[in-house]
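WP5 quarterly update. Target: Flavoprotein WrbA. Source organism: Vogesella margarita. Length: 197 aa.
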Amino acid sequence: MHDILVLYYSQHGATRELARMIARGIDSVDGCRARLRTVPKVSTVCEATSPAVPDSGAPYVEKQDLQDCAGLALGSPTRFGNMAAAIKYFLDGTAPEWMQGTLAGKPACVFTSSSTQHGGQESTLLSMMIPLLHHGMLLLGLPFTEQALSHTRTGGTPYGASHVAGHDNSVALSEDEKQLAIAQGRRLAEAARKLAA
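Structure tokens (predicted):
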């Protein structure tokens, strides 16, 4: 069984919902299963610590998850056209894995959510790709053979699945966004399975 790590940070739940759709796509591929993980929030108070186990949702990621995974889907909300600090903080701590080549040669994809249509989704996705390229990962996008990509009026880009959550984060994933996230997960799992063979 090939474990595919779906690692995300979600403050209001939109990125978590995308992660769940990507996991659904992964789980639809024979021999593959999604491993959902999150990262703790970064605090501005130096003495603050997160609980050892999150109050709800996926468990926190451990470095062993990187070692065990056959592929990685990385997700973050958009923060001024960039990934959230919590994801960046986690990635900044992966120098030992980078030196060991833990992720080298494994497939990866990225996904994001924002409150507005023009909130910087594509630049966020590109910013998340950079550290994965440094790790030697093989990046997968969404091809236009996915029909939803051509007619979506909400989220979805060739760089990765995305969602427009609205200013109050009350907008649910559209059918196009769901289809694209599931397709991205399936594509990642299929690539991981082929590379493992």
